Amino acid sequence: MGEAKRVSLRLILLFLVASSCFYQLRASDDDKVFYESFDESFEGRWVVSEKNDYQGVWKHSKSEGHNDFGLLVSEKARKYAIVKELDEPVNLKDETIVLQFETRLQNGLECGGAYLKYLRPQHASWIAKEFDNESPYSIMFGPDKCGTTNKVHFIINHKNPKSGDYVEHHLKFPPSVSSDKLSHVYTAILKPDNELKILIDGEEKKRANFLSSEDFEPPLIPAKTIPDPDDKKPEDWDERAKIPDPHAKKPDDWDEDAPMEIEDEDAVKPEGWLDDEPDEIDDPDATKPEDWDDEEDGEWEAPKIDNPKCATAPGCGEWKRPKKRNPAYKGKWSAPLIDNPAYKGIWKPREIPNPNYFELDTPDFDAIAAVGIEIWTMQDGILFDNILIAKDEKVAATYRDTTWKPKFDVEKEKQKAEEAASSTDVLAGFQKKVFDLLYQVADIPFLSGHKQKILDVIDKAEKQPNLTIGILVSIVVGMFSILLKIIFGGKKPVKPEPEPEPEPEPEQEPTAEISKQEESSSGEKAEENEDNGAAAIAPRKRAQRQA
């Protein structure tokens, strides 16, 4: 009976889970406006541009390491253009719209784009196969990198209601493009409260307000005033802050013709200067080649060499006094500058009301009628996948978790493994070179007495790779010690340095107290000498006589 209850509970739970999943999928489908997985070939559904500039070949290809298909840029240094018209235009007003797609730069990206263009409704005669860079879009979004450019574009093409002109407004300080070769998902969330959020891999990288002049360049709302295009600077308008002093006069002693340098009259020709010797002479050892023809080759001349006499002399040839700066040199005279009494400042045209100014509560975006990719890239291997337009952020998050995240996790783990293997290969290569060198060292004749010890340590290092670095250090230190012993014969005993003899103290005048102490000491010594007997006195006297 208990088992039956457990089975019933399991069935109920399964039913609830299935119902929840069905509800989520149904909700996702309801909030999903457009989705392209590229699980099937794009041919017949997407239209490749037939314009002559676009020679790049699109391919339906698997992402490297996955069984998942995408739209592949297959050739380098080509322009590409492909477009998919939507069944119905997507309104960008009054509700949240989420734009999301994946890209994978399988060969990196040095110079090229990987962005999407969301086209506004085209003119009546437009056809998809004529899609090109002139086809008007409402939003451009995605990575672009070349030279100093490295950013995730977000550009809106907004119509000025006064002038009727469309203006491109670029997001300021956009996020950077990921430089690796992993799959990344880019998300733009447009909200009816004028907020924009840019996510990369589900993480918010940029938040902006469509109506803020700090977030878009140029701002969507134009300036209230503009410089008057018909205003002209008056002829008497003086913009010079400084002018030459009209009352200044050149001093009488100012010589404009004086040279900057003059000969140094105090200079004296060095002794030994060889005035009659040239710096170069004909090479006396040179001979005219046997095949030299004076008629065809001209008169033969010996090559020049440095005059050997000049090598030991201070100089050769005509001696000339060196130049020095002319103390009388002043250059071209000009009047000093003074404040311009007529200065009026830098002229600017007057401001007038901007005829194209308008106020805006919410952006008046054009609807999205098609999704296109129009790029010029120097790299191949760019893969586009899972292009989504939705009305709910949760829908985009669900697609990220189910389509992008599993691939990214696999690629990330593979990347870590490859990096670890690469570092291991580098270490292994280093170890092999060191071991080869050590085997050669072990065969050196004068180390024959230590050969077995060296081989034992090398063998231990080869069997325990994790300890290799420490063991290699030990080997190097050990071998260095052996070499020192062989070269210098081990440690030599260190001779103790002799202690310095104490310097004699300077003689001092005896004081009364010192004299009493000496007398007392002399008396005590005399008594000791008497007790020791005459035998002790005699040698001392002999020593004194010998001295």
From TrEMBL:
<keyword id="KW-0479">Metal-binding</keyword>
<keyword id="KW-0106">Calcium</keyword>
<feature type="compositionally biased region" description="Acidic residues">
    <location>
        <begin position="273"/>
        <end position="284"/>
    </location>
</feature>
<feature type="disulfide bond">
    <location>
        <begin position="111"/>
        <end position="146"/>
    </location>
</feature>
<protein>
    <recommendedName>
        <fullName>Calnexin homolog</fullName>
    </recommendedName>
</protein>
<keyword id="KW-0677">Repeat</keyword>
<dbReference type="InterPro" id="IPR001580">
    <property type="entry name" value="Calret/calnex"/>
</dbReference>
<feature type="compositionally biased region" description="Basic and acidic residues">
    <location>
        <begin position="227"/>
        <end position="252"/>
    </location>
</feature>
<feature type="compositionally biased region" description="Acidic residues">
    <location>
        <begin position="499"/>
        <end position="510"/>
    </location>
</feature>
<keyword id="KW-1133">Transmembrane helix</keyword>
<dbReference type="InterPro" id="IPR018124">
    <property type="entry name" value="Calret/calnex_CS"/>
</dbReference>
<feature type="region of interest" description="Disordered">
    <location>
        <begin position="210"/>
        <end position="327"/>
    </location>
</feature>
<dbReference type="InterPro" id="IPR009033">
    <property type="entry name" value="Calreticulin/calnexin_P_dom_sf"/>
</dbReference>
<keyword id="KW-0143">Chaperone</keyword>
<dbReference type="GO" id="GO:0006457">
    <property type="term" value="P:protein folding"/>
</dbReference>
<dbReference type="InterPro" id="IPR013320">
    <property type="entry name" value="ConA-like_dom_sf"/>
</dbReference>
<feature type="compositionally biased region" description="Acidic residues">
    <location>
        <begin position="291"/>
        <end position="300"/>
    </location>
</feature>
<keyword id="KW-0812">Transmembrane</keyword>
<feature type="region of interest" description="Disordered">
    <location>
        <begin position="493"/>
        <end position="547"/>
    </location>
</feature>
<keyword id="KW-0430">Lectin</keyword>
<dbReference type="GO" id="GO:0051082">
    <property type="term" value="F:unfolded protein binding"/>
</dbReference>
<comment type="function">
    <text>Calcium-binding protein that interacts with newly synthesized monoglucosylated glycoproteins in the endoplasmic reticulum. It may act in assisting protein assembly and/or in the retention within the ER of unassembled protein subunits. It seems to play a major role in the quality control apparatus of the ER by the retention of incorrectly folded proteins.</text>
</comment>
<dbReference type="Pfam" id="PF00262">
    <property type="entry name" value="Calreticulin"/>
</dbReference>
<keyword id="KW-0472">Membrane</keyword>
<feature type="signal peptide">
    <location>
        <begin position="1"/>
        <end position="27"/>
    </location>
</feature>
<keyword id="KW-1015">Disulfide bond</keyword>
<feature type="transmembrane region" description="Helical">
    <location>
        <begin position="467"/>
        <end position="488"/>
    </location>
</feature>
<dbReference type="GO" id="GO:0030246">
    <property type="term" value="F:carbohydrate binding"/>
</dbReference>
<feature type="compositionally biased region" description="Acidic residues">
    <location>
        <begin position="253"/>
        <end position="266"/>
    </location>
</feature>
<dbReference type="GO" id="GO:0005789">
    <property type="term" value="C:endoplasmic reticulum membrane"/>
</dbReference>
<dbReference type="GO" id="GO:0005509">
    <property type="term" value="F:calcium ion binding"/>
</dbReference>
<keyword id="KW-0732">Signal</keyword>
<keyword id="KW-0325">Glycoprotein</keyword>
<dbReference type="GO" id="GO:0036503">
    <property type="term" value="P:ERAD pathway"/>
</dbReference>
<keyword id="KW-0256">Endoplasmic reticulum</keyword>
<comment type="similarity">
    <text>Belongs to the calreticulin family.</text>
</comment>
<feature type="compositionally biased region" description="Basic and acidic residues">
    <location>
        <begin position="515"/>
        <end position="526"/>
    </location>
</feature>
